[in-house]
């Protein structure tokens, strides 16, 4: 299997985990083999300080237990929580290699396993804690490994987000279509023309509002022309399977008429184990739509470490995301509209965005779509 086909196959496996979390170990094993690494896992730490290693691959039960019992507390890779969601980092990004090798964590836990470095990607961060993907390597993480791993990262992030939507509100042991129907998030099964072949109760309620999404002669239509074009193109491309997910169209920011923010995630159903659901409902893609929210406790961290804004710009950003346009933001902050416009101009420059909808999408990307 060549590199491109191997990567595409791994991407298919990644998205299969959203319907079947038991596949994570098999999938991470493939990532380890693809990158010639030693081990991998998803590490989480909650607000109480409890450390968990989920879906560990390449690590013995002894070292998993000692990590949970104490070594995890001094793991320098936990510094990933201070960085941006979705960025790839190695230990040297926060600790020089020579200092790392002097630590108790390296001498007593990493070195006996021949671990010299860890490639880490922050997956989720909230007031309740954080989680990240960790790939342990036998050598210092170099540009070659980064080039191999970078195409995998966006799919890991999306799979985690979609998986949260799927499994936070329903029992994964139930039949998948029953699981989908029980979701609080709206769900639409679509064919390649955008025709709705099935929707759950939340989806039908959303369409009944005839707001930012509606059904037009059976096809799903977005009120925003640009988002509608992206949705239409993504549905058409979904027949290509996970090859279509390389575009950013899988993440869609929606704004209701009353200013409520929603985030949509579109995933092909023509690859892997998801194919059975697609075939059963003559669908090539599934779209999940749920409220996007930004936890106030997380906001300061996002502003400090991601947007690099001044306090005044940060207040404007959060107020725009929460309340809407310039007038509403000025009224809530008790400042002149011209002041809001000035700050927005600087925010657009710093975040490399062009309009308020882009800011909503940027902020929503760091919030779980299962919240709210």
Quick synopsis:
This protein has 372 residues and is α+β, with helices and mostly antiparallel strands. The chain contains 16 helices and twelve strands.
Placed side by side, the strands forming the largest sheet appear as: 2-1-5-4-3
Total count of helical runs of at least 4 residues:
16
Query: H/E element string?
Result: HHEEHEHHEEHHHEEHEEHEEHEHHHHH
Helix content: 40-55%
CATH names the topology of the largest domain as Beta-Lactamase
Radius of gyration: 21 Å
User: How many distinct beta strands?
Assistant: 12
**Biggest sheet character:** 5 strands, antiparallel
Instruction: Please tell me what the overall shape is.
Output: globular
Uncertain ranges: 169-176, 243-249, 366-372
Which strand-content bin applies to the residues?
Answer: 15-25%
Q: What would the average pLDDT be, to the nearest integer?
A: 79
Q: CATH superfamily of the largest domain, please? A: Transcription factor LuxR-like, autoinducer-binding domain
